[in-house]
Amino acid sequence: MQDRPPLVLVTADVKELDTYRWHATVSTYINAVAVGAGAIPLILPSLGEDIDVDAVLDRVDGVLVTGSRSNVHPSNYAVEENDDFAPFDRERDMTTLPLIAQAVERAVPLFVICRGFQELNVAFGGTLATEIQRQPGRLDHRAPQSDDHDVRFALAHDVALKEDGVIAGIVGSPTIRVNSLHRQAVDRLADMLVLEGTAPDGTIEAVRVRDAKGFAIGVQWHPEYWVTSDEPSKRLFKAFGDAVRERQRLTQGGIAGSQAAE
Ligand SMILES: N[C@@H](CCC(=O)NCCCC(=O)O)C(=O)O
């Protein structure tokens, strides 16, 4: 049996650039999988129904669903579209929503970030609120205006984690400071998800999948950005990497992984 490094699928956005359409992923997610989780990142193109998600999940040990400036199309949670919900990436929606559901079903370790966090909620029947900074009593969760990503991704507010929660256990603290780059948020939390952390204004910031057979957590912030310097971010990716390695061990590493027992 041949050993192989663990493989983690990383989702892609569909972008128009240089007169071409690209299926692309921001490098901070790729680096965080490689360095923080110790796995090989594989970018999954957003091909919707043209990709057999089940067949892909046979061959990988984990799934990272990334953040993105686009929003999940509101038709996915039965809300009518208007300008407040744009921009969209329907090809990504058609890929990530089934991918998330299948990864959970098959106990493939799943870590979802920001847009990915919102997709997790929608994939299991929850809803999203848009332009939350306009709601009375709500913090402005958008990034500071700057061209410098270190400024945009600077730690911005606290998150109170649930005592005895999975995420509090991973980061080893009941409160952490996180960055914030979003204008949508979970509105109705899906029944399948368990609240793990909130911002000071009550915004849902961290969840886990209820009764998940494997690692399945999500955060509204961006631990990938500071994965080498911020201890909680480091711990989250390390825990994901450990789950990925355990999945590989259980389903048997090596090329024969495709014959893995569930
Ligand atoms: N639909 C979302 C997007 C949240 C998200 O993933 N943000 C990452 C943006 C990175 C950047 O601005 O550079 C929303 O709620 O806005």
TrEMBL record:
Any one Gene Ontology cellular component term annotated for this protein: cytosol
Coiled coil: none
PROSITE patterns xref list: GATASE_TYPE_1
GO molecular function ontology, one term from the record: gamma-glutamyl-gamma-aminobutyrate hydrolase activity
Record has Hydrolase as a keyword: yes
Principal EC category: hydrolase
Bilayer-crossing regions: none
EC number: 3.5.1.94
GO biological process terms held by the UniProt record: polyamine catabolic process
Role played: Involved in the breakdown of putrescine via hydrolysis of the gamma-glutamyl linkage of gamma-glutamyl-gamma-aminobutyrate.
Family per similarity comment: Belongs to the peptidase C26 family.
Protein name per the record: gamma-glutamyl-gamma-aminobutyrate hydrolase
Organism of origin: Rhodobium orientis
